[in-house]
């Protein structure tokens, strides 16, 4: 019976490519590990898998019947498998804040303050002296470009840039920035997509001092793409707040060219964004210049403000 590498619920490209890359690495050092996913894939992730010839990882929601799991791209219990207590956590590979997953046995941990989990997995390949296959290198490279917003995100580090350069050479990609823009054009496609699907495209739950908070993010090459949809998006996050019994739901609309975000907010606290970011909402939304990263710029001040 295999173990599994699995990312967070509502998986993004980093979660999926990390699971694939880690599983292959583990197989090369004698472990039987398979990639899995906790939800449906975004258009961007499907684009990456199709470009490099991968099938979607197995959709698997329970892991009690496995030889354990490697948790990738998260360490918050609320974001992982619902039955995480019924399996063994063999390791955590992540680039976010340290969450609340605990274990009763020793585990492997690779946690680094870099822009993408795949950057850490590249370090793991180097550590074990395992050669990265061309297609896996391409997928890893795309995940890093996605998470670092083609190096524009404040989470981007020198390590991320060096890893992209090395992976691009392995994958035979000459103009990786052009591929990154093509990927973001796919990511920005909103026409004909149901409103709830847009809200949930990149959505994470957080427990902030016993307050359930949901934060979604849409990264767009032009914020004007959603001008006609904002009223519907605001109505849907209000409905989601009620359905999920949230304290607050935020949808971060990030303009990657202007390097800032408009945040749509519905909350029990009228002064939520003013306390967290020093910018008050007007009609349920606020533009915050320079904000691009949920994990580094949105979550920490929000969590502190709810203490």
UniProtKB/TrEMBL annotation:
Its cofactor is Mn(2+). Gene3D superfamilies: DHHA2 domain, inorganic pyrophosphatase (n-terminal core). SMART domains: DHHA2. It comes from the Bacteria. The keyword Metal-binding applies. Residues 180-306 form the DHHA2 domain. GO terms for molecular function: inorganic diphosphate phosphatase activity; metal ion binding. InterPro entries: DDH_dom (IPR001667), DHH_sf (IPR038763), DHHA2 (IPR004097), DHHA2_dom_sf (IPR038222). The keyword Lyase does not apply. PANTHER family: BNIP - RELATED (PTHR12112), MANGANESE-DEPENDENT INORGANIC PYROPHOSPHATASE-RELATED (PTHR12112:SF22). It catalyses: diphosphate + H2O = 2 phosphate + H(+). Transmembrane segments: none annotated. One of its GO terms (cellular component) is cytoplasm. Keywords: Hydrolase, Manganese, Metal-binding. This is inorganic diphosphatase. SUPFAM superfamilies: DHH phosphoesterases. Its EC number is 3.6.1.1. It holds the Pfam family DHH.
